[in-house]
Amino acid sequence: MVGPAICCVGLCREKKHSRPKVRKKNHSSRRKAISLHLRFLSIVEVVVETSYTRKDPGRRYFSCNNVDDGDSHIWKWWDVAIQEELRETQTQLRMVKDQFFESDQKVAKLDKIVGVLTKKTSVINYGLAKGVSVLVLVILVIVMGWKSFRGFKHQCQNSRRGWQLRPSLSARQSASYSSASAASAEAERTIREGPRNDWSKDEIKAVYDSPVLDILFHGAQVHRHVHNFREVQQCTLLSIKTGGCSEDCSYCPQSSRYDTGVKAQRLMSKDAVIVAAKKAKEAGSTRFCMGAAWRDTIGRKTNFKQILEYIKEIRGMGMEVCCTLGMIEKQQALELKKAGLTAYNHNLDTSREYYPNVITTRSYDERLETLEHVRDAGINVCSGGIIGLGEAEEDRVGLLHTLATLPSHPESVPINALLAVKGTPLEDQKPVEIWEMIRMIGTARIVMPKAMVRLSAGRVRFSMPEQALCFLAGANSIFTGEKLLTTPNNDFDADQLMFKTLGLTPKPPSFSEDDSESENCEKVASSH
Ligand code: SF4
């Protein structure tokens, strides 16, 4: 068969072989073989023949149609030509592979160059961004510096008015780490400007509604700014006249209106009271509080005189003395002061709005009047409330608002969690959760920074870690002893262990006339 464009030097060199006898093959088989040589052959007609020699019978070879003219023409064994072709193909493949590798290397180099260029561009951009940031920072520093200067001037003015900043913590420093909640803002303001009595209910509500951890944190900030955070006041409360009360306070087991199993008793003798006070002092209490289940002291001249004697005696023992005897008149307040009374407790219990749901036998204003008599007599005011009475959160805010807007904040603010007593109208109330207590305590600490905030009734239900959170939020006073009037209290040994574990120290008594930061008194789950 005639092939297309074929002849090559290599094939021609094979001419030295003797020409074998040939038998022409059919077209298709020869075309296939010849196609392998396309790249090597010049233009000549090539055919595939078959050898019939004795030495190579049936072996195929390449030749051309002009082979018989006696000139030099192509000739080569077909299998040899195929092997050469394969070798050549392998060589070509290697070359292609080498070229590919070379290209790959070049691409890698290009990649590297692009990377370096990108980095340089980033550095330039970063430099630009940094420059802009520094510029913004400088502007901020100038603005803040100006504000700080104005704030410092303001603090100096406050210092002259008696509100001293502790050097360990400036409001601005503490605020820089804080969030933008109302608890944060008001705590900063309290630290900067000191206590104030012009709180709006909305402002207190905003603090109260802040995230509880924010209240905890900023309550702690205010607490540490104003008080020695390790000192916790230990008070002992003794019921010197138990039960048989004419009032209808719906949380109180001492009301004669409810069947609670509490028996009415007469006023305790002086000896019994003094023995109890000595025992309390030996146990570490620095304040002794006496409670009597009365509506008021009017018409109880004999008992009142006895109580004045108790006060003198206990004060003579080096203890602070507190009473909670119900409503008192101006004259009685003066007599109590003269006897040496440190503080008088009279709780508001709840908000003015919710109050009629709890007590109907005396009004909110009568309570405020008693507080006024106490304040006017120069006795420290102890007044707080109870949560868990079924009130709304607005009522808790309302209670704090009333206390925080009194002409002077109470020196002590007891925060009680209701201990529901069987037989009282509130016997089925759900127990107060620790987070509710922390919210109340922290808010009280922020809005009344100088007050002793007392973790009072209901403490027995809280574990040591839960109480620790209350101390962190700003509580710095507790009642110790087996009972709080008629309800159970924390075990003495457990309290000792808690003080040791938390690194707390008992707050020493204070008898300074104008020491308004350390006054205290309590009225637990009963309020007069
Ligand atoms: S809280 Fe005080 S006033 Fe009210 S019922 Fe009890 S003892 Fe009486």
Give the overall silhouette.
rod-shaped
Major pleated sheet: 10 strands, parallel
Report the average pLDDT across residues.
81
Enter the CATH topology name of the domain at 191-506: TIM Barrel
Ions, cofactors and other bound molecules: iron/sulfur cluster
- CATH class of the domain at 191-506 reads Alpha Beta
Estimate the helix proportion, in percent: 40-55%
- CATH architecture designation of the domain at 191-506: Alpha-Beta Barrel
Strand content: 5-15%
Radius of gyration: 50 Å
Number of E-state strands: 15
CATH superfamily of the domain at 191-506: Aldolase class I
Show unreliable segments: 1-17, 24-42, 151-162, 164-178, 514-528
Query: How many DSSP helices?
Result: 15
Distance between the termini: 130 Å
Order of helices and strands: HHEEEHHHHHEHEHEHEHEEHEHEHEEEHE
Structural class assignment: alpha/beta
What does it look like?
The chain is of the alpha/beta class. The protein has a domain at 191-506: Alpha-Beta Barrel (TIM Barrel). The protein has 15 helices and 15 strands. It has helices at residues 9-13, 27-35, 78-160, 171-176, 182-193, 201-208, 212-226, 270-282, 301-316, 330-339, 364-376, 393-404, 434-447, 464-473, 492-502; strands at 46-50, 60-64, 76-77, 231-241, 287-292, 320-324, 343-345, 380-382, 385-387, 412-417, 452-455, 477-480, 483-484, 487-488, 505-506. Strands 4, 5, 6, 7, 8, 9, 10, 11, 12 and 15 form a ten-stranded parallel β-sheet that branches. A three-stranded antiparallel β-sheet has the order 1-2-3. Strand 7, helix 11 and strand 8 (380-382) form a beta-alpha-beta unit. Helix 7 (212-226) crosses helix 13 (434-447), helix 8 (270-282) runs parallel beside helix 9 (301-316) and helix 12 (393-404) packs parallel to helix 13. The longest helix is centred in the N-terminal third of the chain and has 83 residues, at 78-160. It binds iron/sulfur cluster (SF4). Iron/sulfur cluster is lined by residues 245, 247, 249, 252, 254-255, 293, 295, 326, 526-528. Residues 245, 247, 249, 252, 254-255, 293, 295, 326, 526-528 line the site of iron/sulfur cluster.
